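W.,

You were right to be curious about this one. When I first looked at the sequence I had no strong expectations either way, so I just let the prediction run and decided to look at it fresh. Below is the sequence, 115 residues in total, followed by the output.
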Amino acid sequence: MEQEKFDLWCMVELFGHTRIAGRCTEQNVAGTNMLRVDVPETKNHPAFTRFLSSGAIYAINPVTEEVANLLAENLEVSPVNIWEVKKLIEREVKSLQSNNVNTVIDEGEDDELAF
């Protein structure tokens, strides 16, 4: 007997009281079956894909496409962006620079700043 392909619009509840909505399919990633959620574009975010392991999922609720789109708009789940990493690095560099400017090596030796 042939198994039906999993391809539904859903609202997925995750452990940690997080929810995500979109088109859900099953996809093998690195030898493990994962739930692929294709979140539709909203007024605040472009469309994006998130892969979830079964251990992170509390419930999968099938809904219509219209309901999934409304949920995606209201849940405001954000994609991970490269600029977020860049901001973290810039903040760390600024912190290091700030700490170095305020650090004196030894008050007895020419009062030099450590860099």
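Here's what jumped out at me. Residues 7-80 form a domain with the SH3 type barrels. fold (CATH 2.30.30). And, maybe more interesting for your project: Residues 22 and 39 are 4 Å apart (CA to CA).

Coffee later to discuss?

I.
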